Amino acid sequence: MYPGFPHLNGSLVPRFQPPVQAPVLISQVPTDSKGKLSLPTPLELKKASEAQISKDSSEKKPVITEHQDSENSPEWPNGEERREYVLGNEPLKWKETKWAWRSSGRQAHNGRRVEQRNCLGVFSCANAVCGRLIRPKTDPSARKNQLHNGCRLCHSPIVQIACQARSYHYETSNNGVIYSVWEHSGIHSHERPPGGRLSVAEQEAVDAQVTRNPTALVHALRTGDTFPGSVPLPEISGTLANPQVARYQVGQSQARLGISPPAASKGGLAVLKSLFDLQQEFKTPFIINSSIHGPAFLTFQTPFMRTTLEKSVDSWNDQTPGNHLMARHGFVTDGDHSFFREVLYTWILRQDIAHHRPHFRHIQETVVKYLQLKGLEFEPKYLLHVFDFSAAQRSAHAAEYAEAVITMTPGFYNLTKASQENEHAAYLEQALQAERGCSFHFWQSAERITSNSALVPSAKAAEFNLHLRILEDKATSRAEFDKTIVTLNSEYPNIVNWLSWWLRPTFRSLIFPAYSSLDPSIAIQVPRTSNPAEHSHSLLHHSVGSDQDLIPGIKKLFLHVKELESQYNSIKDGHYNPGPPRAYRPPGKPKWDENDGRAPDTEAALGLALNTAPNSHDLSVDLSTINRNLLHSYNWQSPNSCFVDNGLEIWFRAYSSWSSDSRAAFLACIPSHTFLSCLFHHYERRLKQLSTEASITTITQNLSMMQTMTLDRIFNKWQLYSDKNAYGCAKTWLSHAVIDGNPSTEIQEYFGLTHHTVRECKNGHQFSVPISQAPEVWFTVNNRDMNAAHITFGDHVTTSNYFQHYIPRSRGGNYAGGTTPVHLLPVEQCLDPSCTAQSPISSVSTHWPQIFNLNADVVRVDPHKLRFENTFSIPDQNGGVTYELVGRVRHINGNHFVSQVRFGGRCHSYNDMENGGRLILSDNPHLLEEKDDLLSVCYIYNRSSSKKQTSRLAAEIIADYESEIPVVSITIPVVSITDSPSPGPVLAPMPTAPQEVLNFSTNSDLDSYPEEAYNLCDSCQLSQPNPSRPFKSLTVTCTLCERIWHEDCVSMDGADMSLDDTWACPACIHPHGGRWDKVMLGTFILLKPKPSARFYPAKVLGRSSPIQVHVEWYNDNIYQADDDPLVTISVFTPNQCLHAKYCDTFFEYTKENLGAIKWPVRLEEDAADKHDYSNTDIRKILEGSYGAVLEIMLGTRDHPIVPLYNNWIKNRSHSVKMITQHQFKFTQQFKLDVLPGDLSLIDPFLQYLHHDTKNSKVYVESHWIHNVASVLFRLAILRGYLGRQPCDDEQIFYLAYTSSIAADSDIAPDDVYYDAKKGTIDRLLTLPEIAMAASGSIHTMGVHLSLGREVDKQDLLTRTQFVEARTASGSLYAFFNTTASGMAGGPHFVRNHRIELLVHAGRIEDRERPKPRPRGKAAKDLVPKGVRVIKPAAALPSLKRSHEVKELSEGLRRSKRNKMD
Prior knowledge:
Layout: E1 2-4, E2 7-8, E3 11-12, E4 15-17, E5 25-30, E6 81-86, E7 101-109, E8 112-119, E9 122-125, E10 133-134, H1 140-149, E11 158-161, E12 166-174, E13 177-185, H2 200-212, H3 218-223, H4 233-236, H5 243-257, H6 275-282, E14 287-291, E15 297-300, H7 303-316, E16 331-336, E17 344-345, H8 353-374, E18 385-387, H9 391-407, H10 417-430, E19 435-437, H11 439-451, H12 461-472, H13 478-491, H14 496-502, H15 505-511, H16 520-523, H17 531-544, H18 550-572, H19 603-611, H20 642-656, H21 660-669, H22 675-691, H23 696-717, H24 732-739, H25 745-748, E20 754-760, E21 766-770, E22 778-779, H26 783-793, H27 799-804, E23 809-815, E24 819-821, E25 828-829, E26 838-839, E27 841-847, E28 851-855, H28 857-861, E29 871-876, E30 879-892, E31 896-903, E32 906-910, E33 920-921, E34 936-943, E35 949-953, H29 954-963, E36 971-974, E37 986-989, H30 1011-1020, E38 1035-1037, E39 1044-1046, H31 1066-1069, H32 1075-1080, E40 1084-1087, E41 1096-1105, E42 1108-1113, E43 1117-1118, E44 1129-1132, H33 1134-1142, E45 1156-1160, H34 1167-1171, H35 1176-1194, ...
Parallel strand pairs: 5-17, 16-18, 18-19, 22-28, 45-50, 46-52
Antiparallel strand pairs: 1-4, 2-3, 5-16, 6-13, 7-8, 8-12, 9-10, 9-11, 12-13, 14-15, 20-21, 20-27, 23-24, 25-26, 27-35, 28-34, 29-30, 30-31, 30-34, 31-32, 32-33, 36-37, 38-39, 40-41, 41-42, 42-44, 43-45, 47-51, 48-49
Helix pairs in contact: 2-5, 7-8, 8-9, 9-10, 12-13, 22-23, 35-39, 35-40, 37-40, 39-45, 40-41
């Protein structure tokens, strides 16, 4: 019998069929199966005892109510149940069940707030044939992915069967004793979800199996054995059919039992017993055929194996999309020589044709009978087999194929003997259409031939492989094939005999498409290798061993078949999902150390030793550089890849210096969905290729693949640049690589700096608080700290000098470089609940990354300011952290990145456009220490010390910080902060310890304003020219304080100032927290990254001196051409920033010189129509509110908006024009700040209301739907923004109703909604809106201009709260509990495809065009009898587009546009 493996979602799942071969076990592998198989009965679990609870409060017995279903087990509770234990004495897993639960937080229950968990029900495949059950995941996003991905077996959609059951978890007290309580409420009316954690009883059952056979392999425990007490693990729980889960649970059991992991062992020979007793023992048909006197064989098959064989026939007719491309059909045949000492499955005495035929005979007969049963027409593909190149197997298959066709040929035996022989020969030839060879065996053989240079010269190995690829290419014609054979025979004469063997007619047709008789359309649907059958042999040996005696071997084979059947059923029933097939891993080559005295004995080693032997006198040469492929790197790709290649290369050199343990630990914890996983597994493959001396082709393919994947992420996923020809930044993409996929902080800390503060109050309470920022991937040397280092260490400052007195800083703030020193963070309240003292910072710890990325900005400004050393340390009290320089990236020629790296103790240069992308060894050992005239962009260090954290006391940091502040003996103007007005700037001496933003150098003319400016302009009061410069007396007015100054008395930073320019005086700029800071800090302004660039938004972070303002470019700017800044933070002057904020120049801004930003689709108007915007959460809110809104429209449900609208429209004209105007004004009474994209989702629901109200007995006027319903739907969306429940809808209504604020006299103080009626709902601007607001005041020649917007359909703004509810005093509004149902309930919303089509076509109403209505009695006659009219009854005819009706639904606007067209 042949085990088979159908591909389920790309994974191998066991399946079976007949055998072949002599003293050999032959396995047959069909490669597809469908059909629902029954789930093995799970182990029955003991029900919890209902014995009386002991008076001893510590006794662990649950309290189970009398309402508990007697048929329920503790793992599957149903109905009302309660469990109660004394706190701290709860038994293990006392409240865990196997239902799928999701916590909904703390809810009200029986007068207390308790944790409530809701049952998630179960997912079921919508395909009735499949019907697979799937366990819902607890994470909402994961459940969403489950529904999106569908069934993993048949790829059909899956549906969720909801459940209303709940469980409650809380603590209570009784007579002073605290109890833990678990309550269950509700009925689970759905099937039990598969999978889930093991219960206590199931764990005990696993322990029992591990105890009885502690040395068994996990696979053996899954299979079971023939001795009493054996229970295969899948019979305990279906999840244990998953090998991975079984390994984990057995490991946990061994840990509980104190048993060491088992070691593999082989079974011995057993005494032969009677074959006749086996069938009675199995109780299931297994030995189905045998022969002793003729060809000796035994054939084994269970009903499951026969069913699987028949399903392989059905798979050919499966019409599932893509099924024909999955290579999942046919049978795979192979022999197993080692399970029995003789044979297995189909037991055959010899490996000749006669002994193989019974195996194929059984397969063919089974298939033919099934085809006849199903009434299917015979085709050769149904008997198709994949072989290795055994002539006996192939001939036996052809002979039995011919016999099978003969049985389906009526009248065959009525033919003459000669005709029968001719027909039989034709059938043998036809058998070629149902045969395929194993290509893997061919390429294994070819690889061995290629590795022998005596047969194939090394220089021609690549060309030889190319010729073989042509032979096996399905597009190769016979003429091309024959021509290639001639070439191979002439150019490689030593392989003629090898090639002749493969060109035998029987083998040639099996392996080479040019001579294959197999239909190409069939060929793509079957495997190209017999490896699945070989894998089944491996599984068999792994589970029950090898070298078996006959009878014990048959018993163990039977157990193995049953285990595979259990695994197959568990997959079908959803207990686990098999992983994807593993890629082929070539066998590893033995490694030997260079210094073990072994002479080179391969061609590669000999060539290497001869060509790259190091100088025997040069002991500094690192042997790791001997590998000739070590210098191979990424070659330049068009149109531009240098900014990617250098980052990839320099990080690889850093990673290659990690220890093997460090690399393994990092790869084990990094999430697989992140880009870092992709990148560093690529690095690991590259290291293995270097260590195994892989071919240059393999290495190049690996490098090129990583280049392509990185460029795809940069341009398509991260969308850092809109132009594929853009010159990217070598640093920016690395920052995105670290955060892609949102890996944990522990992973990001491998590449970025983080700080923790330790706070301690006066009462001794200590707690550690992380600085809530993402790790700082690019470290920037702080100018202020750099200047201080120069004061301490002189002109030549090194990285060791800089970090010796390192001041920890957090990003953002008004201190130097737009940062905030960590020790200056505000004092916080002690976290101890019993303590009210303040907790200042007592120490600061810094976590240093493994790869330390240093910006070289300080060097680009002044190349003599800092010297980056090859090695430096960061000290603390317990040693220090040490770094070694890996390399640096340089920017040359204004448009190209290159790098210099150090490894193996030597320096190398790298330019991806030269030398084929290979590194060039440098003779200069100090290459990286040389100054390079502003060319360095960044320096990359690798941490060489195991220590990765330093800690400094706050007192030490403060001492260093204050000692670095120079005392400057000048006076600066400060603006008086007293209540009385001041006639002018007040002179004040500079403090001895000034704020950091004032600590600028006094040696630079640009860093201070002339002292005479303050005196002269203040004393002369501008009544006379400046006495020192009487020839120039122009004045300039400060934009902020409106004081007037002499233009030549103040430094203008080289700008040509005039009366029309925006400008801030020294008195407004100098003080920390002065007028300039209050106006500018934290705002977005438009600036140019480069003089020739367009304007883009940037955020003002802070100032490091009076003339240096640090701004951060908005992360979602879309830079054009060469606009991209080299750094994310740039420096401008205060007046440049002020000019950008208040600029009102007519011709400075144009449509052409304004840049663009990414614009989330959720902020785009008409997003649903223009960009197919959809939001599942908002749609659920609208669908949940629809029934209530419909009842309000029909008058069957009360709502405060109904009388409000009636009063509003009551005394107004019912003309179309007035209704239109009042409609717009009515919505103005509410503050309904809904995101534009979400607003566009309301339109279909208005159309549904038109349709449903028309079909009711209540006539509803159109303007009621346009006015009232649209307001109600928007209120429902606001509820979703606030995260509230429908019971809070009335409070939200009054919060949004702004007219109630003015009518204070109408609100009674004791009104329960008093705070809501006086409160409001404020919208919180999103970051894209704030950035866009930087262009909000640009008007040129009466035309309003703004930044360009590129809609990002993937950005749904995941921010959890877009609005805030506040009281009249400005505090957050506190919602109170009510019993109101709100806008929930009512008729269930049902989608109507016809209405959806109407909405898509632009029709807002599914009714005839309104006609003029008569007045008086005639008007009443128009209303059908029995139909109630909702007043006012003014119909809404077609409307003209105007500014006043912009609040109408977009469906109405589309309708009008269609008419205008």
